[in-house]
Amino acid sequence: MAAFVMQMLGCEVAALNTVHYSRPAPNTPLPIERTHFLPQGNLEKRRVVNDIAGNHLGYKQSKGTKTSADEISELYAGLKQSYLTDFDVMLSGYAPNAEAVDAIGAIGRDLKLKASTKAGSFFWVLDPVMGDEGRLYVNEDVVPAYNGLLRDADLILPNQFEAELLSEIKITTLSELADAITKLHKDHRIPHIIVTSVRFDSSSPIISVVGSSSRADGSARLFKIDVPALDCFFSGTGDMFAALIVVRLREAASREGLLATNSWRSPDEVSAAELPLAKATEKVSGIMHTVLEKTKAARDAELEKMSGPQGASEKDSEKRLHLRKTKAAEVRLVRNLEDLRKPDTRFRAQALSETEGWNPAKMPRPTDKRALSCAAETPSPSYTFIQLVYYLHLGCVYLSVSHVSALRNVAHPCQAKPYPLKDKLCYPIACLD
């Protein structure tokens, strides 16, 4: 899902699967309409065969294999030997074991070292997929393995449970969550943090996203976005959120002239609600809510057609009913592509203050400073993703023990200039496939 989302927003993604689960056969076409953005600003639509739909762990059963750490390393070595590692962004996610996490970390560090002479030219988004709602999806040794990567990441995307694991702070209130984020900034010098799926009461009609971009001294600038909760279980939303935030954050950072600064960090005087991270999260929250609302409506209609309310019938076993409901709730991305490109911005970021239960004086500020420097040359707007993300719910991953989606600078008729499409700027991207 993550690769598809980024492609539909103008990025070309190179994916390295960390798992290989059941999918439709290659000769089973799933035609979709793909829009290609041309330098002149025109649109070209083609019918293509796509295998977005497929088995995933949400079905509670699967067939397939996982990619080993050695295979991950070997695949990356293959890119290096052909000089295909000029990536701008890496999105990394699910890894099946600690060894795979270490292999992903080695890739991220190698790319950061390669880009170290040019500030802002490489950005690592790390989604530490480990579990949710108090339950681990992975072995316990994956937790310290992810902790070992935090200092090298530019942005991390834990959910509430994963933030507890990484910070070692039990999170039951907004104040405790703020403390956990502040501790992660301090202990690991992470420039940007977004905590997703924040809900302190399972019956609450609101679900929140809480984020922060640190100042030069490591202190937090916290914001919160509230979104109405939907009464439906969706698979793959973490991948969708990660992919959207990669694209929207880069847009916001570019708008503020931050792409030539380390970690795309804003000056200290920028307030929490005005941070590029907050503005990007507003757009992502709006997109997510719109698409999931439409998905839920389509799911309800589909189940109603099957056999009465929620698709239940006397012949349905509990297992069969679960499979029906899971299939009906697959996120409707293909039919709602316009919603990805035209975000609903009704959900606004609000800065967290002491009046909301957070007291920054309780948390010690770090003494060390993470230097901010500017590159002499601004990176080309053309970019590539190295995506290391696993479709935990969709059964796919990217160039990392999951998919590694890589955005690579490439020669293009537009050269460094983005070309306009209505009110957007579209960036030419290279495809590694």
Give a short summary of the structure:
The protein has helices at 2-8, 69-81, 98-114, 142-147, 160-167, 174-188, 237-255, 276-307, 318-328, 337-341; strands at 13-15, 19-21, 31-37, 43-49, 64-66, 87-92, 123-126, 131-132, 135-136, 155-156, 192-198, 206-213, 222-228, 350-351, 384-388, 405-408, 419-421, 424-426. By secondary structure, it is of the alpha+beta class.
What labels would you give this structure?
alpha+beta, single chain, globular, 433 residues, disordered C terminus, six-stranded mixed beta sheet, 18% strand
What does this entry look like structurally?
- The chain is of the alpha+beta class and 433 residues long.
- It contains 10 helices and 18 strands.
- It has helices spanning 2-8, 69-81, 98-114, 142-147, 160-167, 174-188, 237-255, 276-307, 318-328, 337-341, and strands at 13-15, 19-21, 31-37, 43-49, 64-66, 87-92, 123-126, 131-132, 135-136, 155-156, 192-198, 206-213, 222-228, 350-351, 384-388, 405-408, 419-421, 424-426.
- The strands form 6 sheets. A 6-stranded mixed β-sheet has the order 7-10-11-12-13-14, sandwiched between helices.
- It starts with a helix and ends in a 7-residue tail after the last strand.
- The relative contact order is 0.21.
- Residues 23-54, 364-383 and 388-433 have low confidence and may be disordered.
- Determine Rg (CA atoms, Å): 21 Å
Oligomer: single chain
Identify the strand order in the major beta sheet. Answer: 7-10-11-12-13-14
Return the string of H and E elements.
HEEEEEHEHEEEHEHHEEEHHHHEEEEE
Global mean pLDDT: 76
Q: Kindly state the percentage of residues in helix.
A: 25-40%
- β-strand percent reads 15-25%
Give the overall form: globular
Backbone structural class: alpha+beta
Number of helices: 10
Biggest beta sheet attributes: 6 strands, mixed
Low-pLDDT stretches are 23-54, 364-383, 388-433
